[in-house]
Amino acid sequence: MRRFLIPGIVVAVAVALLALLAFGINSQGINSSIDNALARGIHPALPNSSLSLPVLGSSRSESVADFRGKVVVVNVFASWCPPCAAEAPILTQEQRTLAGHGGTIVGITYEDNASASELFVRQQHITYPVLRDVNTNLVNSWGVDGVPETFVLNRQGKVVALDRKQLGGSWLAQTVAPLLGLPS
Amino acid sequence: MNVGRTRAMSALALGALLASTIFPGVATAAPARASLMDIENNVMCVVCDEPLSVAQSPQAYQERDFIRGLIAKGETKAQIERALVANYGIAVLGKPPAHGFNLTVYILPPAIVAAGIVLLAFTLPRWRRRVRAGAADEDPEQPKISPAEQHRLDEELSHFAG
After folding, report:
1. pTM of the predicted model as reported, rounded to 2 decimal places
2. CB interface of B with A, residues 55-114, below 8 Å
């Protein structure tokens, strides 16, 4: 029995280290649960949407859930990201439509410093609220691993559509219009 | 008298010089000015998951500009690191803070080394005893077979001797 003690301990330690490694790798992985649900035709709730985040340029905090009852377009962006600047006119244009029909865009900054984000907001004439997800805890739970990414939520706070790349063409307008009761 | 005073002053000056050499932090009250190179080596490009010193992404350039701005304001390395955490999150630090799951980074390597040393401390003497015992078995002065077996072997061999 004693001769199996040391090999047993070594094997147990090796298994524990492998389990730790697997846990570490798994926790670093990208969450694709929203994409999978949408692919099955299910409209999932946005995970952790009640998490309060600081509002850019303000001492207040707000969460995405605070906008429930409105059609919400959540856009994750960064000032250092050229595609984010390229799609900004589409978002500012859409904000005008949304604001007039009980909806809004909510911007969320990604791996960006506050002063650079504020400058970006001024340069792109952004008028919608922008939240700062400093530790990326919120957007990580949505499977965001780059910018820009855009999520469209209905008035119940469920994800109706998402685009994990730069917005182009009329995809956003066509996706949002039926939710606002407008002809698409 | 004058000679004594001169010697005392010299000893004092020498002592101060030695103290400033041995304890430079005590001798200079003002903290050293932060440098981009020093900070770059201790922080990460949060988007590319590599040290800022080697990162070349747009986010890395922005992070460097942010650090340069804080250095220009005269902030210390510690203040700059705090500002980086406030803006980019805890992931910006090269060495994660020692709490939660991050503790494994600090605990596991020394624990594995300690476990290895303990394992060797137990197994090495045993291996050495086994090797010594094996060597003793092969000693030519030691009888390998009993006299009865030796006698039987000789008898068997004599049949082949012709």
Report:
1. 0.72
2. 58-59, 61-63, 66, 86-91, 101, 104, 108, 112
